[in-house]
Amino acid sequence: MEVNNAIGCRKSAVARVYVSEGAGKITINGRDIETYFPSSILRYIVLQPLNKLEVAEKYDIKVNLDGGGFKGQAEALRLAIARALVKINPEDKAALKAEGFMTRDAREVERKKPGQPKARKHFQFSKR
Q1: Tens digits of per-residue pLDDT, 103-128?
Q2: In this structure, is residue 115 part of a structural domain?
Q3: Is 106 part of any domain?
Q4: 110: Cβ–Cβ under 8 A, 6 or more apart, which residues?
Q5: Angle between the 40-53 and 70-88 helix axes, to the nearest 10 degrees?
Q6: Can you tell me the distance from the alpha carbon of 13 to that of 69, in angstroms, rounded to the nearest whole number?
Q7: What confidence category does residue 3 fall into, taking pLDDT thresholds of 50, 70 and 90?
Q8: Is residue 114 part of a domain?
Q9: 122 burial level (CB within 10 Å; 0-12, 13-18, 19+)
Q10: Span 26-54, mean pLDDT?
Q11: 110 lies in a domain?
Q12: What is the C-alpha to C-alpha distance for residues 108 and 97, in angstroms, rounded to an integer?
């Protein structure tokens, strides 16, 4: 049985995915997808590449997720799954790229600067 792996990142979340032939079971950090992502919106984000290619019941997916929040983790996982599916079948890349699933969202949190309360915000100027 061949196992394909891929990595997806979003903000500070990192998803490592191991895809193998199976019945469509998704395990995230040893837990089922329904318990890890109780929100149906986040589950929908994760399953978008599988539903687009109509292979949701064809592969078992084991995931190691680390860092970030719920949304960042879901989007990192979507990218990792899309990359793994392209490794399995390179012809699927055009369909996934058209939907935007192959693009790494590179936006990161800007660092806080000294002498300021936040990254861009300044303390109130006082003339007197």
Answers
A1: 999 999 999 999 999 999 999 999 98
A2: no
A3: no
A4: 119, 120
A5: 10
A6: 7
A7: confident
A8: no
A9: exposed
A10: 94
A11: no
A12: 22
